[in-house]
Specification:
9 strands, alpha+beta, 3-stranded mixed beta sheet, about 290 residues, Nuclear Transport Factor 2, Chain: A, 2 domains
Length: about 290
């Protein structure tokens, strides 16, 4: 006897599963961006078009574009049609996506995401399950039409959410790593030894710039002792960050170290630190200088 003879529910259709994945992807994306601290909203990697929170404007523009595309497909009776020209929509979104929204602006953009997501669900709610898989020739700009199903449209949007969920996580990791470096900078500028040492993990591994060729390697308490001695022996020491960038839990910092302990002992060197950060503290610091 079949399940339907018992009155049980039918198994989910491809459309049901597509909507379920669409909803789950939106929820994951929105929650990831909601949790980002306001101080992190302007985080952006060199060369990227979007800041961490600015990408919300881009996501909303994509939702609007594909909502209009799906509507055009349905209004054409799932026969050949054209996607809308959304160039102005994307231009306006991109103009905002490179900025640093406030927390309130981020929240407003995410509220718009919820509305646009719901509008797509509402548009597709009445579509017969068999029509979700129908291939429609859709023109996306000049050129030949692209064979497109409603399942494809929802799949593209689902993948787009997932892409930017991962981007949010990656940019947050960069921001957290750089925040540790910035705390080190503040401690050095204030010559605050306790604050500096608080940025270092108990099991830190440090490779000094000397002696050649590999530098002295030390770990744990020996690292603290080394920096305590540096603070005491060189009261004029001044570190200046020239550039810093992060990739997840790693950071590269270009710096200049100046000192002036009198006419016979003054100068500067320039170098690089390669850092690894774990749970808000530096676990690895490898230092290199120009010879």
């Amino acid at each position: 006897m079949s399940a339907t003879e018992h009155g049980d529910l039918q198994p989910p259709t491809a459309a049901d599963l597509a909507v379920e994945r669409f909803d789950a992807a939106e929820d994951a994306y929105r929650r990831a961006l909601e949790k980002a601290p306001e101080e992190a909203l302007g985080q952006r990697r060199p060369g990227d078009d979007y800041t961490l929170a600015g990408l919300a404007y881009h996501v909303n523009a994509v939702l609007a574009h594909y909502h209009a595309t799906a509507r055009a497909m349905l209004e054409a009776g799932l026969r050949e049609t054209s996607a809308p020209d959304s160039s102005n929509l994307f231009e306006a979104a991109n103009a905002k996506a490179g900025g640093t929204p406030t927390g309130a602006e981020r929240d407003a953009a995410l509220a718009e995401t919820v509305e646009r997501h719901a509008a797509i669900r509402d548009l597709l709610a009445g579509v017969d399950a068999r029509d979700w898989g129908r291939t429609v020739p859709v023109r996306f700009g000049p050129g030949d039409p692209h064979p497109t199903r409603l399942l494809d449209v929802l799949g593209w949007l689902t993948d787009h959410y997932a892409e930017h969920t991962a981007q949010v996580a990656s940019l947050l990791a960069d921001w957290r790593t750089l925040a540790v470096h910035e705390a080190i900078d503040r401690a050095l500028a204030a010559r605050d030894l306790d604050a500096y040492l608080a940025c270092l993990a108990d099991d830190i591994v440090f490779e000094n710039t000397t002696p050649a060729p590999d530098g002295e390697r030390m770990a744990g308490p020996a690292v603290s002792a080394f920096f305590e001695q540096l603070f005491v022996s060189t009261p004029s020491a001044r570190f200046t960050t020239e550039e810093a960038f992060a990739a997840g839990d790693r950071a590269v910092v270009r710096w200049r170290f100046d000192w002036d302990e009198g006419p016979e002992n003054r100068g500067h060197v320039r170098g690089v630190d390669v850092l690894r950060v774990r749970e808000g503290r530096v676990t690895e610091m490898r230092s290199y200088v120009k010879g």
